[in-house]
Write a structure and sequence with these properties.
Helix content is about 30%, strand content about 25%. It is α+β, with helices and mostly antiparallel strands and about 290 residues long. It folds into two domains: about 110 residues; about 120 residues, D-amino Acid Aminotransferase, Chain A, domain 1 (2-Layer Sandwich), CATH 3.30.470. Strands 5, 6, 7, 8, 10 and 11 form a six-stranded antiparallel beta sheet that branches. Strands 1-4-2-3 form a four-stranded antiparallel beta sheet, covered by helices on one side. Helix 3 packs across helix 9. The longest helix is centred in the first third of the chain and has 13 residues. The chain is globular, with a radius of gyration of 19 Å. The relative contact order is 0.16. It holds the Pfam family ATPgrasp_TupA.
Amino acid sequence: MIDNLTYLAKVIRTRFVSDRKYLTKRFISKLGYVPDFDKPSSFNEKVTARMIFERDPLHTQLADKLAVREIISDKICSSHLVPILGVYKHFDEIDFNALPEKFVLKCTHDSGSATVCSDKKRFDRGSAALKFKNHLSMNMYYRKREWHYKDIEPRIIAEQYIDLYHDTKNDLIITTCRVHCFEGKPAYIEVDVQDRQGKDYSNIYDTTWELQPFKVDLKENSPICIDKPEKICQMVTLSETLCLQKGYSRVDFLLSKDYVYFSEITLTPNAGRMVITPAEWDLKLGSLWQSD
């Protein structure tokens, strides 16, 4: 109930508080410095300036987790797309008897709704129904002012479950790989890993798999070195094909033992409020983003 009231307040606020004013206040509160969105130089300034000024319909297509699949399949082999098991407008349309024992549900129009079912017998449908009812009723634009989410039709996708890459030597699972690309070129690979206790870490590498001296969003590096997976080079090549040729884009992948799967393309990571440490890397990354 509180979440719904908070969301309603955010919707009402868009009528009285401009995107620029709202995002400026949030930027200062989170990052601690006054931004210049007219002449942005830091990475976060440029992400937020994109949210305020850019209105490219392509960005909406890329953010739509269903529509983006057509774009991706035109550029690379469709086998790199996670197979879809069903698309639904409402949670109660899902025929769970037709789904395998393991699957993933997520919304087409937002971020953070993904729900993994690793055992259908233990899957809490009641909690999932409530979660997806809330997600389907909310628009990401009103939540974070990311305009390119505003006109996406809300739906639920059921996808095939992917057995993620397991570094058996170090007993680590790679949960997500995010390739940060600037001006059409991959630059850094953000790799999220989980240890046997379920603790999450994040390492950032360059494209030669050298660990970098900066972190994002206060995520800690893994205390155990991660051997370079065999498919990383292919992932970097795919990201170069899929990324925007101008400006910045982040191409996310899921990695299994033998294959690379496209996950999503992100254009405004953390809604322009990504904590980057040391702080000078906010400017260093911003300098790689050269075009408007």
